[in-house]
Design brief:
489 residues; alpha/beta; 11-stranded mixed beta sheet
């Protein structure tokens, strides 16, 4: 048995039975990373020594007969936008190329308290700005299903790590779809929780009113386990919601009978790939056979989501990224004694093209004379999108839609056309604008063998129902059992 192929819940059982040791498990993952990661570009930093040390401690706990914690000995990959004490955190940017945080993000503290092991930090679009992981300041990540294709973004490294069995599970972040879109393109499960469900303390900010941390997993049960580990109120994050955390695994076996699923007209539009539409409609029919009712709903302001997002997110980014001035963090340009010139050169050297584009867009939108015309109007559109969902959830329990309009596209195919790249997030942007949870689960493959994702969008703090629907669908299909043709030698 190759232990890297097991989902988290089966790995936990193997550890508890003594069929595996944490040390052998970590070595299996490190061996696979050594074998494949030069070709895939998943990791920016591999924490091999720390992972081995943690695995040895886990094995010692097991030998002493201590009670095992919920994630005891599970090796995880962490998107490199989450602070890890003593371990480099770059945000995929050269400006933070040597930054080592002095503290852990709350989600890292919670994973450690549950016994999880951090294998390393995964590649990403710089400061989470992108949909393909081609905007990394270091190298692109490739899709394990076709290495000439992108894995999606910005959490492309985390999604590819799970799909290629280079980690048992992973954390990503979702601002406009950066967990769900790469999960769809890599054939794994990805969830964006409700805004406030998971603490963002220690998450390096891109767009503070949108950013949210979420799990990426091999199946729905693993996503439930990981979400349960990281969710909950945190006084260190003023946006953290003081809401009880349900037993997400308890919801998984309840089926979909009695639930009403909404099919939004605005998500089945010209430009949607025919194979994606076919797979999603087939998945909806499967849910109907399982006992769910379906009905059409309208989310009429969906068309304005991309435009509103690309005002609001760059505006917040232009403010958040002002802190990278060559004084407080990371890279500093040499050769000048003038502070203004040094700051300008530092940012010119350290930021990539997409980050500069968004900072300029955001600065313009916030500038005197344009604030009302752009930023304030985008905020009003955001309210309308939230009201669309409120009305829909008065009639249905879950909205069902495609996650991405196409399967994974080729590396370089959209890098020269930012608008084409931005439109790849057209179906994932509305949920974070509304602050509500959403999940992507595999629902098929294209004729070329590329994964397709089904998106489930839910009511605020009702992640349990999303997991319930996803689990019912997953149990009725076998898409999640397929794996890319990579060397397991």
């Amino acid at each position: 048995m190759d232990p890297t192929r097991l989902p988290v819940h089966e790995t936990l059982e193997a550890l508890r039975r003594g069929a595996l040791t944490a040390t052998s498990l970590v070595e299996a993952y490190l061996g696979r990373i050594a074998l494949l990661d030069d070709a895939l570009g998943v990791y920016l930093t591999v924490a091999a020594d720390a992972a081995r040390a943690q695995a040895a401690l886990t094995d010692e706990r097991i030998r002493r007969g201590e009670r095992l914690r919920p994630l005891e000995g599970i090796p995880l990959a962490i998107k490199d936008v989450l602070c890890t004490r003593g371990l480099r955190t770059t945000c995929g940017s050269k400006i933070l190329g040597s930054f080592v945080p002095p503290y852990d993000a709350t989600v890292i503290v919670r994973l450690a308290a549950q016994g999880a092991i951090v294998l390393g930090k995964t590649n990403m679009d710089e400061f989470a700005m992108g949909s393909s992981t081609e905007n990394s300041g270091f190298f692109p990540t490739r899709n394990p299903w076709a290495i000439d294709r992108v894995p999606g973004g910005s959490s492309g490294g985390s999604a590819a790590a799970v799909a290629a069995d280079l980690a048992a599970g992973a954390l990503g972040t979702d601002t406009g779809g950066s967990v769900r879109q790469p999960a769809a393109l890599c054939g794994v499960v990805g969830m964006k929780p409700t805004y406030g469900r998971v603490s963002r303390y220690g998450l390096v900010a891109f767009a503070s009113s949108l950013d949210q941390i979420g799990p990426i997993a091999k199946d729905v049960r693993d996503a439930a386990i990981l979400l349960e580990a990281i969710a909950g109120h945190d006084p260190m994050d003023s946006t953290s919601a003081d809401q009880p955390v349900p037993d997400y695994q308890a919801a998984l076996g309840q089926g979909v009978r009695g639930l009403t699923l909404g099919i939004p007209d605005e998500y089945f539009i010209p430009g949607l790939d025919a194979e994606v539409e076919g797979a999603v409609r087939t998945a909806i029919a499967a849910l109907e056979r399982l006992g769910a009712r379906t009905r059409r709903v309208s989310l009429p302001h969906t068309d304005y989501g991309v435009a509103a997002y690309y005002i609001l997110a760059p505006a917040e980014a232009s403010s958040n990224l002002a802190r990278y001035d060559g004084v407080k963090y990371g890279h500093r340009a040499e050769g000048t004694k003038d502070l203004v010139i040094m700051t300008g050169r530092t940012r010119a050297d350290g930021f990539g093209a997409e980050v500069k584009r968004r900072v300029m867009l955001g600065t313009y939108a916030l500038s005197a004379g344009y604030y009302e015309a752009y930023y304030a109007k985008a905020q009003r559109v955001r309210t309308l999108i939230r009201r669309d969902f409120d009305r829909a959830f008065g009639e249905v329990d879950v909205v069902v839609a495609p996650t991405a309009p196409t399967p994974a596209f080729k590396l370089g195919e959209k890098t020269e056309d930012p608008l084409a790249m931005y439109l790849n997030d057209v179906f994932t942007i509305p949920a974070p604008l509304a602050g509500i949870p959403a999940l992507s689960v595999p629902c098929g493959f294209s004729a070329g063998g590329l994964p397709i994702g089904l998106q489930l969008i839910g009511k605020p703090f009702d992640e349990a129902t999303l997991l319930r629907v996803a689990a019912a669908y997953e149990q009725a299909t076998d898409w999640h059992t397929r794996q890319p043709a990579l060397d397991h030698g």
